[in-house]
Amino acid sequence: MPGNLINIKRISPEALQVIKRLNNAKYSAYLVGGCVRDLLLQKTPKDFDVVTDATPEQIKKIFSNSRIIGKRFRLVHCVFRNNIIEVATFRTEDSSSKNADMITSEDGYLLRDNKYGKSLLEDACRRDYTINALYYSPFENVIHDFHGGLYDLLNQNIEIIGDPVQRFQEDPVRIIRAYRFQAKLGFTLSERTQKAIPECLPLLKQINTSRMYEEFNKIFLTGHGATSFDVFLKNNIIEHLLIEHGSLIKESSFSTFINNALINADNRLASGKQNMPHFLYAVMLWPIVKQLYLKMLNIPRFSILKDVTIMDKASDIILQRQCAITNIPQRFISDIKEIWNMQIALENQNNLDNPKEIVWKGIFRASVDFLNARISVEPALKEIAEQWVAQYEFFVPPEMRSRRQIIERDKGNNSKKGGKKDKPADRSKKKFGSKDGYKNKKFRKSGKVNLKKAQEVLEN
């Protein structure tokens, strides 16, 4: 059909360049997926994906600024200064003959899908939802729609392509994507799509934890986090993204705290500010880590320790469990723990007598924002939060109110004191020794406290 519904001015120049160069090399190429969907909804897409009949190796020969990525799905990233255009090769669902490029598990999960097709129709059958199976040829100004995607777009339907159970078995992330689209677009899942989900929910455990981490960020950090939380909570999907919260998840204070924090995050993004994963996880896991921390305070073998040490132990337990679902990188784990530990310092009124050292910490701004977020369910914190904000504004000049600037200032002060440079971190000596957080690591004994026993507190 004619592509007059699409405003070509909304399309990334780099995406157009990629398509043009593929066409010049005698390959067909189209915009596909979410970018076409958003263009039809009169929105400017964040990302642009291209599909072509050229293989990854052929694409790489055309673009010197490209790299082949992925094993499960081989793709090519064409890298520009401020943009990355993802280019995929047509795929086919033809499984009439065994092929090492298309491998499934006993449960039907696609372990590898690199069996390339030769046409748009073949590729369209491998797409997940009809609204994502729309193709646009910008230089021909033509939209290709093989599954009624435009109809579903106009009627605000989320309709899976093919047999729902089979498609969810192939890739359980499609379940998460369905609800993410519902929250993002305000659409409704079709009856047959919705009906197949409950029996397929256990399949979510098959998803790689690093991939789940990326999906988690897409759900809550891209401007529709509050709506997504409501949708995932109502449909009992949140329990597959977070560790078991027990009765906490049913308490109004739990949803109120997280919802308000996510509304603020959505507003930040809308105003052009960036949302960071460490703050998101600090919010989402705070109710359960606080509950564990308070329990441990009243257990004799922990009560002999400093409060900040107990918080450290509680944090390690909760984060280890969460990383079994979403593999949080180590650099963010450190920031999450710092935010939680800072809550103890900020709640201590005595620290306001000598606040300068605290307000100059790199994590202070995020920590006091976190303290302010807690006011929605802990109104007694309002007065002390206001005092900390006042101290911050008094001691830290506006031009120094970024974490990077504070870190640079600290480096400068250290060099002035004696010319000694900080030694680079020795990752081999880190407590859990992995840049990927707590992945596949067991807790070990620390002093007189056995962290393995500490985990039992969660069940008591």
What does this structure look like?
The structure is a single chain. The radius of gyration is 25 Å and the shape is globular. With 460 residues, it is an alpha+beta fold. A hairpin with a 2-residue loop joins strand 12 (445-446) and strand 13. It has helices spanning 13-24, 34-40, 56-62, 120-125, 149-154, 164-170, 173-185, 191-200, 209-220, 225-234, 252-270, 277-297, 300-303, 307-323, 330-347, 356-359, 364-374, 382-395, 403-418, 451-454; strands at 29-32, 49-52, 66-69, 75-79, 84-89, 102-104, 110-113, 134-137, 142-145, 157-158, 188-189, 445-446, 449-450. The model is unreliable at 420-435 and 439-449 (pLDDT under 50). The protein contains 20 helices and 13 strands.
